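Notes, p. 3: input format for complexes.
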Amino acid sequence: MANLVLFMITLSSLALILSAIEGISAVEYTVINTAENTPGGARFDADIGGQYSQETLENATTFIWGIFQQNNASDRKNVERVSLFIDDMDGFSYVSNNNQIHVSARYIQVYPGDVKTEITGILYHQMTHIWQWIGNGQPVPDGLIEGIADFVRLKSGYAPTSHWVSAGQGDRWDQGYDVTARFLDYCDQLKNGKFVAELNQKMRDGYSDGYFQELLGKSVDDLWVDYKAKFNN
Ligand SMILES: *[C@@H]1O[C@H](CO)[C@@H](O)[C@H](O)[C@H]1NC(C)=O
Ligand SMILES: *[C@@H]1O[C@H](CO)[C@@H](O)[C@H](O)[C@H]1NC(C)=O
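Output follows (233 residues plus 2-acetamido-2-deoxy-beta-D-glucopyranose):
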C-alpha cells in the first residue's frame, strides 16, 4: 500500500515535471529563406544561416521573458509558433500576424561589416514586438513600443555602436528606437532593473503616461529633464 502511494506520488511529480518542460519548450520556430536565389539570400546562408537564426530566436525568447520578469507562463502572451522569413524586399524588417518576422535579403546584401551581429540585434528587436504587451487596444506612443524593443536589443549586447545615439541624446522621450531605449535604460536603473518589466506588465491592460509617475514617482516629462541633465552636463 505504502509502495503504491509512493508510486502514484512519483507518477504525479513526473507528470508535473513533464508539463513544466512542455511549458518551456512550447514555442516552435521555423526559418524560411524565400530569397535563396538572390545575393542577399545567399549571404544569409553563408554568413548567418538557418540553424544559427533558429537558435537566436529561441535564445531571444528566453532573454525577453527574463527582461520582462515573466517567470510564469500566465504572465506572457500566448504565442505557439514563430517564423522567420528572409525575403527579397526593400526596407529592413517587420513583423506580420504577430508571429512572423520578415528580414530583407537586400539589406543583408548591402550591410557593410558584421552582418551576423546586425541581424541578431534585429531579431532581438523584432522578437520583443512578438512578446511585449501594447496597451490592450488603448493608444500607446509608437516611440515607446519601438523604444522597448530597442531597450531589449541594448540589454542583449547586440546594439550597434556605429549608428545608435549615445545616452542623453535626442529631443523627446518618445522619439522611439535608440533614443527611447537609452532613456528607458536610465529609468530602469532608477528601479534596480525592474522598471521596464513592470511597465510592460501594466501595458497588458492599458496605457497612460502616468505609469511613469506610478512606478518612479515622477512624471515622464520630469524624468526626461533629469535624464538630459544627467548626461549633458
Ligand atoms: C543560445 O543559448 C545557448 C545556451 O546559452 C548557447 O549555448 C548558444 O550558443 C546560443 N545560441 C546562439 C545562436 O546564440
Ligand atoms: C502562475 O499564475 C497562475 C495564475 O495567476 C497561478 O495560479 C499560479 O500559482 C502561478 N504559478 C507560479 C509558479 O507562480
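The mean pLDDT is 92.
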